[in-house]
Amino acid sequence: MNILIIGSGSVGIGLGTSLLSQNANVSFLASEKTAEAMRKNGVERTGLFKHYSFKPEDFTVYDSYTQIKENSFDFVLVSSKTTANDDISRKLDENRHILKDNFTILICQNGFGNDEPFLRFFKTSEVYCARIITGFTRPKRNVSEVTVYTEPILLGTLQNEDINHLQPIADMITASGINCELTQDLDKYLWAKMLYNCTLNPLGAILDVTYGKLTENEYSKALMDSIIEEIFSVIEASPYTTLWDSADDYKKVFYSKLVPDTYNHYSSTHQDIKRKIRTEIDTLNGKVIDLAEKYDVDVETNRIIYKLIKAIESEF
Ligand SMILES: NC(=O)C1=CN([C@@H]2O[C@H](COP(=O)(O)OP(=O)(O)OC[C@H]3O[C@@H](n4cnc5c(N)ncnc54)[C@H](OP(=O)(O)O)[C@@H]3O)[C@@H](O)[C@H]2O)C=CC1
Ligand SMILES: CC(C)(CO)C(=O)C(=O)O
């Protein structure tokens, strides 16, 4: 099985090394600087679970589509930030000769509806998504460190397609030490992740605090309650569902378990702003706003939070 990883960052190198550990034929499409580091020093997975290290001759790195031969890949894993999806989906379409017949694109990102840019060019039976709550960081350009594990990585479809052909990918990731399963209910799990990320990520970035700190005063708590309630109204108005029946049920788990478990964590949105790069707000609260418009739901707090992040980004 030939696998191409597009987006060779924390998640991309983390998944790529996991698949390499099971003797999969893995290639990375990386920016010039990252490709250079990988060609020189190989790739590594460190942190929780088993550590793996691969020499440059164990995998292939491309820094341009022009270097890739025709008919090369069965699977493409997209693990860039969602801000690159417009670019990646367009380039993959322009270079579709690198894909074999019956190829599969698997999008490994936060947010909801990340398959949509790809569905402009590819069929619903060709595009799948993952829900990842394993934490990965990239201490060096060629190294992924597994920092947090709570639940298995989940693979599935948002388009009601058959998912059985994803099983070999899930099995290899599991065999590498990070549990990975298929689910028929991916939308439920992605909305659960959306609830968590949309509530904590932008607010933590705006106020420059950890997840836990946000629960320590009544003002940020009131904002988070409102974000959660609005997202539940959107889910209820849409065809989607999530793991809890009501905003109140979710809030109980959120304040008693989810936040305490990640109390000292700074959100990826916070980290993006510190790095002065565009955040993934469009596929988080921005997606909530899009759906709210479609289903005529009031999401005023999400709108304000969204505008504040956009205002910060406009300075970059
Ligand atoms: N890290 C984590 O713990 C988790 C992350 N996620 C989600 O996974 C996704 C990836 O996150 P993460 O790995 O942390 O991000 P990183 O910033 O570590 O990696 C992103 C990678 O994408 C590359 N890239 C940037 N632009 C493009 C482009 N146009 N085409 C191809 N590649 C590009 C970057 O290049 P370069 O090498 O030059 O930087 C980098 O290698 C995000 O959606 C994130 O929200 C989900 C759960 C956990
Ligand atoms: C890393 C993780 C999983 C936080 O728990 C996350 O989703 C984020 O920071 O955006």
Automatic annotation (TrEMBL):
Catalytic activity: (R)-pantoate + NAD(+) = 2-dehydropantoate + NADH + H(+); (R)-pantoate + NADP(+) = 2-dehydropantoate + NADPH + H(+)
PANTHER family assigned to the protein according to its UniProt record, in alphabetical order: 2-DEHYDROPANTOATE 2-REDUCTASE, PROBABLE 2-DEHYDROPANTOATE 2-REDUCTASE
Species for this entry: Methanobrevibacter millerae
One MF term in the entry's GO annotations: 2-dehydropantoate 2-reductase activity
Protein task: Catalyzes the NADPH-dependent reduction of ketopantoate into pantoic acid.
EC number: 1.1.1.169
Keyword NADP belongs to the record: yes
Domain Ketopantoate reductase C-terminal: 186-313
Keywords: Coenzyme A biosynthesis, NADP, Oxidoreductase
SUPFAM superfamilies: 6-phosphogluconate dehydrogenase C-terminal domain-like, NAD(P)-binding Rossmann-fold domains
Annotated Gene Ontology cellular component terms: cytoplasm
Protein family (similarity comment): Belongs to the ketopantoate reductase family.
Keyword Amino-acid biosynthesis set for record: no
Pathway(s) the chain acts in: Cofactor biosynthesis; coenzyme A biosynthesis
Biological process, per Gene Ontology: coenzyme A biosynthetic process; pantothenate biosynthetic process
Domain called Ketopantoate reductase N-terminal: residue spans: 3-155
Official protein name in the record: 2-dehydropantoate 2-reductase
InterPro entries: 6-PGluconate_DH-like_C_sf, 6PGD_dom2, ApbA, KPA_reductase, KPR-Related, KPR_N, NAD(P)-bd_dom_sf
Domain of life of the source: Archaea
